[in-house]
Amino acid sequence: MRIPFVEIQNFRKLKSIRLDFSERITLCVGANNSGKTSAMLALGHFLINPKRFTTNDFTLSDWRVLNGIGTQWEKAEPTDDGNALATKVQAVLPTLDLWIEVDAGQIHYARDLLPSLDWNGGQLGVRLRFEPKSVVDLAKAYLAARQVAVATKAAAEKPGRSDVPFAVQLWPHDLRAFLDRKLHSYFELRYYLLDPSKIQSPENGLAKPQSLPAGGDSIEGNPLRGLIRIDEISAQRGLGDSTSDRSDQDSTDARPTRDKKRLSEQLKAYYAKHLDPSEFAEPEDVQALQAIDDAQEAYNLRLETGFADAIKELQGLNYPGVFNPKLKIATRLRPSDGLNHNAAVQYDLMPTPSGTSGVGMTLPEEYNGLGYQNLISMVFKLMSFRDAWMRVGKASKATAEDEAERFVPPLHLVIVEEPEAYLHAQVQQVFVKKAYDVLRNRPELKIKQPDGTWADQPGLRTQLIVSTHSSHVAHECDFAWLRYFRRQPMRAEQVPTSVVINLSQVFGTEDDTHKFVRRYLRATHCDLFFADAAILVEGSAERMLVPHFIRHHYDKLHCAYVTLLEIDGGHAHTLRKLIEHLGLVTLIITDLDSVEPTPPHKATPTKRGNGLVTSNTTLKTWHPCEPGIDKLLDIKPEAKIKLYPETPLFNVRVAFQIPTSVQLGASSKPVDAFASTFEDALVLHNLDLFKTLNGVGGIKKVKDAVVSATDAASLTTALFEIVREMSKAAFALDLLFIQDPKDLKVPLYIHEGLAWLEQQLDNRTDVVCSTPTPEVVE
């Protein structure tokens, strides 16, 4: 049994999305404000505690619809036709469709979800909808409150009371204001059966949940009780404040799901549930309980002696009197009291060697780093979730009031928000790799294979859902685990929403491209999944210098979250499917890579009229899909943009070398020079600067070539040969060492690309680009 996917509608930014669950671990990634947190909160609201719902959890633009319905109620008194009213409201209610894959042998767990008696295995679905208990009662209550508000305002504006109409709005001025205070009085969570035969695949990332029949009845009770155990670790863990109260505890939860402030409190709760010998004592607990009784008797004797004089003094004041009970001081020692203080959890800095009588050096828990506390806290919670699910220790002997709680549910869903908080990169990677193993580290959850290895017990399934902003966490995950949240543009009278892309479906089969991309991202970083835009560059020189161009000349682009990936032009196209699935606006800065048209296609300096072609696979197969150098040199800037009309605000632009106007000698006229690489393009745009540089290696060779050049053709040929032989990384490093990068002029082809990228990001917020144009050579 497992959850293959959930579909969420009308919850915050999630207007209609499908979130596919992996077999074991699902990792939610995406840029800031892309909807990851909304998805995690939706799971908690629907599956753990619906009392968390507020009016802010409805998709914001849907309040126009709901307030409009309230206005209609004011114009016409609602009738008892509840179905007609409910149909109008249901279209904008928060819902979660939960689909479960159930084997035929586990039907008894899901009996409340069976669509028919002849069902013999497959997917079962249930819709959880946060809806009015009675639309008619809601309408009548709202109208009664509105009538009071209208009458009060009218009375205040009567002649003699006020000469000017009041502009103040009295509660409730609309249905939203009414429900801000009365939501849980009139709303509740209900469950509806879904038809597995009506499942539809998402289109362009948008889910297509099935419609329920009008007037359909909900399921009595919670059909998921006894079927799924759900636990969560929220992002607000609040570690580090050992004196703070647990003000974040939600008292309406059936069990404590909010995070405690101190590790000692977490240990105490675990102890009470699984280890406390005061209930269902084990034989090995008897000796410890006897020791506690002996200590309590001795302590009470000491208290009686210590308080004797004080009690005699009270008796001297005729209290207690003849008919009053006498005062007795005693204590009650409980096993859990040892964990009920700030120093219950300590860090042993210098352990005492065994066999010695020295005193070890320890510090209380709040004296250790937040990262260490956070890691211990999360791992301990995961162990607690697992042991509570498996009824470990004393929990196995407790008598459950609810029959469904007496059995171990076959499915355990664990939700973890942003585990990277306070953790450095290596620990983040360790956590995501080990978290699932911790949740399965019980003998009941393992089964021995015929070959002697151990595998997960199929009858007891764990699924871990993690949201993260960390590229280091994503770095440790397989593509099949990743779910990318992509922001959608704001439409007319709508708020920005999100869609979810299942990255396990990007490449289809395990082909060579998939292997290369996976290995490449593992070798570099996974910032691609969290960025607002991407820049793919040709080599190490661009990787070092392009960030300087952005920092000094493109202020708005510098403030955006843009990731820069170094990938050879011959391999940039391998990221095509991934970038297109992400819908991530991308600038590809690449080289023309001119070669002769006939085999062996020898590399040659870029020229016009020689029938040269490009060896650059990106330019030939992705965009502009043109092999001829002459045609590439003449392509207009707007033709370098690949449009994707089906994906809003997503385009890809290529930037490659274009003719550069240079002037050699005081009396000569400007002529076109043709660069073949980033390095010689940089030189052609900064001729005056390179004439004055004092360097060695590649810098000196370039300077000599520029100084001695008499025409553009000889210069470009000389630069072509120098660049082929020199270390491009060393050239960029030497240039940064001897010259302030802000003095470098940006090659025109790169400027056009960066200016376009800046404008694309501006379009997302409807802001006109006002960045000053950097100095470029015309």
What attributes characterize this protein structure?
single chain, alpha/beta, 6-stranded mixed sheet, 5-stranded antiparallel sheet, 34% helix, globular
Q: What's this model, at a glance?
A:
The chain is α/β, with parallel strands linked by helices and 778 residues long. Helix content is 34%, strand content 16%.
Account of the protein in words:
The chain is of the alpha/beta class and 778 residues long. Among the domains are: 2-227, no CATH class; 531-763, no CATH class. The protein has 23 helices and 24 strands. The strands form seven sheets. It has a six-stranded mixed beta sheet with strand order 7-10-13-3-14-15, with helices on both faces. A five-stranded antiparallel beta sheet has the order 2-1-4-5-6. Residues 241-258 and 767-778 have low confidence and may be disordered.
